[in-house]
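Convert to structure. Protein one:
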Amino acid sequence: MSQKDQVTSQEQALSKPDTPDPEVAPQAQRRRFTVEYKLRIVEEADRCIEPGQIGALLRREGLYASHLSNWRKMRDRWRLEALRAQKRGRKPQDPTEVELAKLRRENERLRSQLEQAEIIIDVQKKLSQLLGLTPPVGAENETGSCQ
C-alpha cells in the first residue's frame, strides 16, 4: 500500500463520525406493483418445483408470502382485471340513492315545520278566544258572517 493510499484511508476514517446520523428518515411510501410485475412473479413462483425456491424468489424480490397468495387469488378470480391498480377510498354512490336520501331529509324537515306551524296556529286561536277578539266557534250575527 502506498503512502497516498494510507493518507486517503486515514482521512476517510477520520471523516466518518462514530455517532449515528441524527437526521430523521422520511416516512416510508406504500409500494405499488404493476400488473405485469405481479403476473411475472406469480408465473415465476408457479414454475418453482424445488423446496425453498419460492422463499428465495420472495427474498430476492423483497416480497411477503401474503403478496403472492393474494396475487394468485386475484389471478384465479378475475385474471388481469383484478390485478390492475384499484382506486382506494369510498366507492361512488348511485345518483338515485343520493337523490332519494336528499328528498327524505327535505320531507322530514317540511313535516317538522308543518307541526310547528300547526302548534302556533292552535295557540293563536286559543289566545284570540281568551282575549275575546273572535266569537266562539259556531256563533254568527244576523248577517250570517262571523265578526
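Protein two, convert as well:
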Amino acid sequence: MKRILIIMSVCLVLVGSVVLSFVQYSMSFYNNAILPPHSIEGIVVLTGGKGRLSKALELFTSSQAKFLYIAGVKEATSLEAIFTETELEGVNRSQIILEKTSKTTHENALYARDYMIQNQAGSIVLLTSVYHMKRAAYIFSRVFPANIEIYSYAIESQNFSLEDWWKNPNSLRIAFTEFLKYGWYLLFL
C-alpha cells in the first residue's frame, strides 16, 4: 500500500510539473510584437499558420527591408499562388525569396541562416504565429550566428484566438503540441 502511495505521489508531482510548465509556456503567447528601433535588412516568415504570409507582405511593403524570405513553401509554389495581383502591386518581386527545401522549423532556420550569411544580412524580423514564436525564436537563436540580430514578430493566427484558445480543442492541441516540441528542442538542440 505504501508503495502505491509513493508511485501515485510521484505521478501527481510529474503531472503537476507538466501542467505548470505548460501554463508558463502558454504565457509566451501574449508577448507583443515589437519592431526593432531601427531599420531591418530582411523579414523571415515561416509558413504553416493562417495569416502569416499576408502579414509578412504587409510588414515588408511598409518597411525599408531589403527582402522578404518565405521559408518552407512547397516546391511547385509561386508568388502568384500565395498572393493576389493586387497584393503584389508595386512590390519588387525579385526581393521576395521562396525557400522550397525546408520541412521543419529547424530546417527553416538552417536555410535562412545560410541565405543571411551569403547576403551579409545583419538583422531580420522573424514572423510567425503567437503559438509558434517561442520555439521558432529559440531555434533561430541557436542556429544563427550572434552577429545577426533577430527580432520576433508574433501574430495572432486565424486558427488560434488569444482570447479563448484554451476553450477550443483544436487550439489547445496546437498549443500543447508546440509545448512538447519546444521541450524536445530544449533537450536536443
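The mean pLDDT is 92. Residues 32-159 form a domain with the Rossmann fold fold (CATH 3.40.50.620).
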